[in-house]
Amino acid sequence: MSEKKELTKGRLFWKIQKESFRRSVTIYLMYLFMSLLLLSSQAIGNTAAQIILGILCVLGGMAFDAHLSYHIGADHYDSYMAGCLHRKNALFGIQSGGDHRVEREYRPYKGFLIGFYAALPVFVLGILAGHFGVGENIFGSIAGVALVMFAGWAIIPIAWLRNFAHLNLSFYWTLIMTLIPILVSGILYIVGAMLEKRKKQSENERMEKVREISDKSRKK
């Protein structure tokens, strides 16, 4: 039976990156799905309807992000508690069973890292679109077209400001939109973990009260 490799800081770092990227894929796909709806809404002839429906699509992506990040935070807190138990047993020389993964333990920064990976296409394509953008035409470069297709939620609002408000904004401004998944993922990840912590504490308090009542009943 082969022994597990020692988990060095370097290996743990890359495992955390892999876990965070894996978790970000579903979040990115939710934004992509809402982007497709956003693009469809832009075919409407009424400008006000385009903007209102577009904003609703962006908010829909944020709602999916919040839901997923909340549950990821709760899951990671469960892994953190399991890790604490493993480490406590190890101090007494007790080998814990199970397939515990340290990279899945809760840490406050991980939600923001997951959000960063979900926003990575916007970082890359936004820089390219800003560099190669041609005039006010959102389709003036391949990077602009790619940004519309793969992260429309980030570039369409900037296009509104350019086309309807006549603001001379570079497509570099799409980089500001990356704050949406980073902040939503990071904050809701922490909220999910903290509520899971409170839930666990409440369960432990109830179990402690049940023990106290049981002990008192035995003494009578």
List the helices and strands and how they pair.
Blueprint: H1 9-41, H2 47-91, H3 110-132, H4 142-163, H5 179-219
Helix pairs in contact: 1-2, 1-3, 1-4, 2-4, 2-5, 3-4, 3-5
Task: Walk me through this protein's architecture.
The structure is a single chain. The protein is mostly helical. Helices cover 75% and strands 0% of the residues. It has helices spanning 9-41, 47-91, 110-132, 142-163, 179-219. It is elongated. The protein starts with 8 loop residues before the first helix and ends with a helix. The model has no long low-confidence stretch (mean pLDDT 87).
Computed over alpha carbons, the radius of gyration is: 23 Å
Helix content: over 70%
List low-confidence stretches: none
Sheet with the most strands? none
Number of strands: 0
Mean pLDDT value: 87
Spatial separation of the terminal alpha carbons: 53 Å
Name the shape in a single word: elongated
Task: Supply the number of helical segments.
Answer: 5
| Percentage of residues in DSSP E strands | under 5%
Structural class: mainly alpha
Q: Helix and strand string, N-terminal first? A: HHHHH
Please tag this protein with its features.
5 helices, mainly alpha, 220 residues, elongated
